[in-house]
Amino acid sequence: MLYTTVLMIHTGATLAALLSFMAGELFLAMARRGQWQPARMALLAGRSAHLLLNAGVLAGIVLVFLGGWPLWTPWLLAAFAVIAAAMVVQKKFVAPWQTRIESALGGEAAGVQVEAFAGEKSALIARVAVIALFGVVAALMTTKPSFALLVGG
């Protein structure tokens, strides 16, 4: 019963986070027309996604212990590596962009400025990479591959 409850929290929170990240991208697509309101909504969606993702990851850690999986399980190690990669991309590329756009929106950002921030290609690539990496984590968590072919077993 406890395992199922925590699994539902984990699944629901991470799925909601992924949907929030994607909603943020839709808002940013609207903001590329120079509108600051969708840009603010995109930032709110991003903050919500991070809170949901933190809850999902915490529930996932609890599941590892409730499920009795050793931490050196291949699919779990692969998921940890992909999560680490997503965190690096987030910290190195997305967070600085996010700080710049939040600063611009905190003042009276001109439409041209909002359009430039929302259309920044390197930030878009980084945000999409984070979403894709979490898709890989979801695939690893769902399929739990053994990687036996990769290690010759």
Q: Sum up the overall morphology in one term.
A: elongated
Question: Structural class of the helix and strand makeup?
Answer: mainly alpha
Largest sheet: none
Distance between the termini: 34 Å
Q: Order of helices and strands, N to C?
A: HHHHH
Could you tell me the radius of gyration in angstroms? 18 Å
- Total DSSP helices: 5
Q: Tell how many strands the DSSP assignment holds.
A: 0
Q: What is the helix fraction of residues, given as a range?
A: over 70%
Averaged pLDDT: 88
Strand content: under 5%
Low-confidence stretches: none
Description:
The protein is elongated. The longest helix is centred in the middle third of the chain and has 33 residues, at 74-106. It is 82% helix and 0% strand. With 153 residues, it is mainly α. It is built from five helices and no strands.
Write the layout of secondary structure elements.
Elements: H1 2-31, H2 36-67, H3 74-106, H4 111-118, H5 121-143
What brief labels describe this structure?
153 residues, mainly alpha, 5 helices
Q: What's the short version?
A:
By secondary structure, this protein is an all-alpha fold.
